[in-house]
What does this fold into?
Amino acid sequence: MKAKALNAAELKYIRHEKMKKWGGIILNIAWWAFLMFPLIYAFLMSVKPPADLYDPNAILFPKNPTLSNFTDVFKVAPVGRYILNTVLVAVLITLSQIVTSFLSAFAFRFLKFKGNKFLYGLVISTMMVPGEAVIISQFLMVSSWGWTDTLMVLVIPHIVSAFNIFLAVQSLENFPYEIYESAKVDGCSDLNFVFTIMMPLLKPTIGSMAVRSFISAWNMYMWPLLTTNNDNVRTIQIGLSMLNAEDSQSMVLMIAGVVISMIPSLLIFVIGQKSMVKGLTSGAVKG
It folds into this structure.
């Protein structure tokens, strides 16, 4: 009787654990569907033919799905050129922000000079100033220099990031100062130390910076809208907004273009999300 009671208790416990497991799986799937619904809906809209856009019987799922919208959008506008410009701008901004952030972090962490902490605080305080507050003065400045309608105007104002400098400095909080001293004794220059010793040891932070900087540069809208009026230098976010119109064909083409423009940033985030988490938490624990 005791053995039977024990077996029944074990079966009840196993059944309870299975219910908890499947309940957790169902809850995660439901939460994933809720979060991903905008992306799923955008994809479903992008494969709709223009005739189905206002069809009440095809509000969510298209009756006659087609992939022609993804090819037609390249015929209506130079989307390929927009994507190439955006990739070039995003890569240049990402690389420049990584380099300038680690050079600045090296100076704040290892070089002892007067006003070190004050200058670092001044850099960090710029994060409290919204970009919209200075965008007009920046536009007037670059337009007086003749930089408008060039890729240079999209890259140079964003080669430094206060947040990335803060992230790099935090990642160096636990970096042994003795490594720098040993490198100097061996005759290693400061630049050589940064690029050959310090940066390779901080790969998670570099991955976090790369993901954040690339996605931020890829999704820039206001600054490229103000400074570019030429298709040769226009980015994908601005180019797609030019497709917006009231007719159904333009709407499905614009949505197809939006789906295409989301693919690179989603891939970068999926590939680098682990490095991003490690980089953001690398300086959080001391010991």
Notes: The radius of gyration is 26 Å. Residues 43 and 187 are 57 Å apart (CA to CA). Residues 2-46 form the longest helix (45 residues).
